[in-house]
Amino acid sequence: MLLATRAEDRVADEEYELFLRYAGLRENELRRIRLESAAMPALDLNELSGIFVGGSPFNTSDPEASKSAVQRRVESEMHALLDEVVERDFPFLGACYGVGSLGAHQGATIDRTYGEPVGVVEVTLTDAGAADPLTTGMPLAFDAFVGHKEAAASLPASATLLATSASCPVQMFRVGHNVYATQFHPELDLEGIDSRIHAYADYGYFSPDALEIPLAAVRRREVVHTSRMLRTFAERYAR
Fold first, then answer.
1. Other C-beta atoms within 10 Å of 211: how many?
2. CATH, range 2-237
3. pLDDT digits over 154-174, tens only?
4. Which of 32, 72, 123, 171 is the most exposed place for a label (fewest CB within 10 A)?
């Protein structure tokens, strides 16, 4: 299951295609729910192998008064789902928005301290990350696409830090054995992030009059390893 919150049809469809491609799944193997358009239906986790959560224009750390009714609904639905996911240690991988949603659920400090501009950063696995099954075959340090306003400034005892970077100390963590969140985008390739830069030019990530800056930033280094964890996740949990 892919839980998505992107209102733009083209970007939402591209995100779905990227998860399909890099997880190695067919359309009949990956269902999608667009939470920005309708309430989350009742999910029977016994009928699912795992859950992906895509990135989002929503920020958990936004002042409550500034959040739209849709954002508040999505956050409430995600929190209720995570109650069951964490209790059952059900396979879950949240990309970018996963840090905000899972982190907030677990009591992490989510704020604007470690936001990163759109670009490529070097991510380093911790000892726990290097030993984690989801990072099998990945180098200890790898480049990844990022671009976010908020991040986890600290993690609670329930979370295990798996990856970090110089500009953002929490790039990936795990709760239990099977519940994961990444701050970077494992689903993105260069074409995908190029499309998002254009789609979100007016969302405050960068000046809309200076698109050439983030476009140049994502081209500085080649990103080749992060998508591996999507296929590993699917292969590990598919049933």
1. 14
2. 3.40.50.880
3. 999 999 999 999 999 999 999
4. 72
